[in-house]
Amino acid sequence: MNKPRTGSSVRTRFVAVALLVGTAIVLSACAPTATPRAEAKVAVMNGPAQSALQGSAEAVQQELEKDPERGFSLVSAFTMRFLESHTDLFHSRAAASAARIARSEGADLAVMIGAPVLERQVTLSADEASRRIDVSVALEAQVVDASTDAIVQTLRTRTQQGSRVEANDLPLPDPDEDPTVVALMQVAAPELSFSLLAELPYLIRQLLIGSNGG
User: Was domain 41-212 assigned CATH 3.40.50?
Assistant: First the structure.
């Protein structure tokens, strides 16, 4: 004949279960957990200096910032304008200097925005009272791995073309202040931004995650 369970035995079973649950909680708390990787950071700057078109890096960064799903953060444009103006970004020194700027701001990649195509052809009217200015502009992004100083990708837009006719009694403005150059640069900036949004996440995975086996 089975004996009815006493209150003491029920309490004993309850204590045992509580101890097992408590042990499981302690062990789970002690177990190693995966640390979420910090979001990658990108430094966008005007460069290399010999082909820089002032305003193009800002225009590209503004386009990048419009995408909340881009998967990386950006060094502030204000900071980048100050740093690039105090750094040697000419010719063969450009990539190493860009990488150094990026590292100083905790960025993983540097992106140099330049205008490898920037042409203006001036044609005077017969009486030289007016002139026609034909302009061609293309933007280029050189992506630099901040840890190695290496250029890991180069992206270029299509060449944008435009023209204007104006009086010939004023000096030709500098390219940075030429209204047609600026207008064409602003057309090219979204195209380059679109390419960067497609390419940078891939480069980040390859360079930052793939390098440590993650």
Answer: yes
